[in-house]
Amino acid sequence: MKKRTLALLLTLLMIAPSAVSCSESSENAAEEAPVSAETPTAEETPAEEEPEADARLECAVPAGLDLGGEAVGILTFRDDAVNTYISVTETTGELFNDAMFTANQTVMEELNCSFDFIDNGNIEPGNLQNAVAAGDEVYDIVYGTQWKVAPLVSQHIFANLNPSAGGYIDYEKPWWYSNYIDETEVDNTHTYFLAGDASPDIIRRSSMMILNTDLLTDIGGDVNEVYDTVLNGNWTYDEMSSLVSKLYIDTNGDGQRTEADTFGFASWTRSDVDHFMIDAGVRGCSRDADGVPYITFNNETTIKFVEKLVDFLWNNEGAYYVEQIPTLQMLANNQAMLLCEKFSRLDLIRDIDTNFTIIPVAKLDNTIESYSSLVHDDALILSIPIVSTNVENLTAVLEKLSYYYYYDVMPQYYEVILKTKYRRDSSDAASQMLDLIHSSMTTDFAYIYNYGMSNMMISLRDLIGVSKSTDFASSFAKQEKAYNKVLSKLVEAMMSE
User: CATH fold of 207-374+442-479, please?
Assistant: First the structure.
């Protein structure tokens, strides 16, 4: 598979010093109210200086390309509790909003086109399916929720955006997230979904851990030692479990473990299992010499992970997992030291008094080469319906959007909001944590297409979070034949275009 190491290095050089499944969709509607949902405004924080024009990489779209005033219909799968949208129609004084508005206007002006943002609502993708079946070109570009659109790939409704099929997208450029795109592919010649800076959701729905440094200090811990552990590659499940075990207080003295108590770790949703799983180093599929995926989920790494996470969630005195508990409020009240979260949830705790920092989710052990940050399956990913008559022009739109979002939009979020407004620790080490997580955003083929593969990957949510079982091998064996059958059909469908 293409790993595009150069693109990753360029991303770090450009940005560093200069991202719900069906179950969590419903859970988010019941989340605790924001502790603070404010967004930094232009008056609060000046915008970063723009890079010198000659310092920018070249965009693959020819300077003279003219779309002749074409209206580009952009369909967005909306879930207001979760996602971030580029469908901004006016400036508001908010940094992120205004940067997106300006970038959109620039693309429209340079390509001589207009954007028609179409809100699909928080519904199933029936509108898209019906439009394609009818040959209706109303939707040119789709910002689709991963878990909703990915299973549709077998219905042949998306255009192949692989370089071999033509178009203007340059996958080697740092504004495309190569690790994610590689995993969407069934081989090296079929690419139906893209992830890049044109979809801010990718980083905002990526995983990390919030570490309450006030509570860490209270138990005699040192945040600099935690940073060193992470940077040395030793932030593993054993380290995490040991740290969490040091904190449990029956705060109200009732003798019961409830959300009124104080814990080393708290979780409110079983979809945290997804992030623990992928970030630990577990993968559902491997690739053959041609890049075609095959199932290897049942292996020693997965078995060890299940044992470790069951032990962590259910046998560690400092860990507390109950669905729908108000974990962010517990953090604000100094009742939780460690949370498994996504960057978007930081919006809700911007103004809490608690001091916290961000660290990666732990690796399973030192046999896992690097940290990972899973892009959750509720992130918005990009595609073009196959009925679009001029896919090449639409790839120009996507390339331009990602180009300008990379230079003019995402630095506002990454450098100004994440690294300045939301940070409580201004140290270089804290900054390195964010860079480390950002550079490790990833996913897995079987996770992307989970809902087209008999829910193989999220089966661990119930096994671990409900059944509290470590018997993964037996559970998998019951479904193994079915998993291989649906994967075979999926691969055949994706390669038949």
Answer: D-Maltodextrin-Binding Protein; domain 2 (3.40.190)
Residues 6+ apart with CB under 8 A from 307: 470
Distance separating alpha carbons of residues 98 and 155, to the nearest angstrom = 37
Please give the Cα distance from 283 to 245 (Å, whole number).
28
**Helix 300-315 to helix 472-495 angle, to the nearest 10 degrees?**
130
Provide the b/e sequence for 368-392 (b: ≥16 CB within 10 Å).
Answer: beebbbbbbbbbbbbbbbbbbeebe
Say if CB 207 and CB 279 are below 8 A apart: yes
CB 307 within 8 A of CB 400: no
For residue 441, report the phi and psi dihedrals to the nearest 5 degrees.
Answer: -60, 135
Helix (H) or strand (E) holding 445: helix 445-448
Say what the pLDDT of residue 350 is. 87
Sequence ranges of the domains in the chain: 5-204+377-422, 207-374+442-479
pTM for the complete prediction?
0.88
In whole angstroms, what is the distance from residue 178 CA to residue 171 CA?
7
Say what the pLDDT of residue 27 is: 43
> Is residue 495 within 8 Å of residue 190, measured between CB atoms?
yes
What does the block give as tokens for 281?
């180093």
- List the Cα angle 111/113/119 in 5-degree steps: 130
Which two three-digit tokens encode residue 430? 């804290």
Rounded alpha-carbon distances, angstroms, from residue 433 to 204, 327, 482: 15, 22, 40
Please name the helix (run of DSSP H) or strand (run of DSSP E) that holds residue 217, with its range, or none: helix 213-218
**Residues 469/463, Cβ–Cβ less than 8 Å:** yes
pLDDT on residue 34: 45
The token pair at 467 is 């059944």
Tell me if domain 5-204+377-422 and domain 207-374+442-479 are identical in fold: yes
Q: 3-state DSSP call for residue 144? A: strand
CA–CA separation, 338 and 237 (whole Å): 13
Encode pLDDT of 180-235 as tens digits.
999 999 998 999 999 999 999 999 999 999 999 999 999 999 999 999 999 999 99
User: Which DSSP category does 194 fall into?
Assistant: B
Domain 5-204+377-422 annotated CATH 3.40.190.10: yes
365 CB burial (10 A radius; 0-12, 13-18, 19+): middle
pLDDT computed for residue 269 by the predictor: 87
Scanning 219-332, the segments in alpha helix (DSSP H) are: 223-231, 237-244, 272-280, 300-315, 327-332
Contact 473, 298 (CB under 8 A): yes
In 3-state terms, what secondary structure has residue 122? coil
**pLDDT of the residue at 54:** 55
Name residues of the chain where pLDDT drops below 70: 1-54, 81, 497
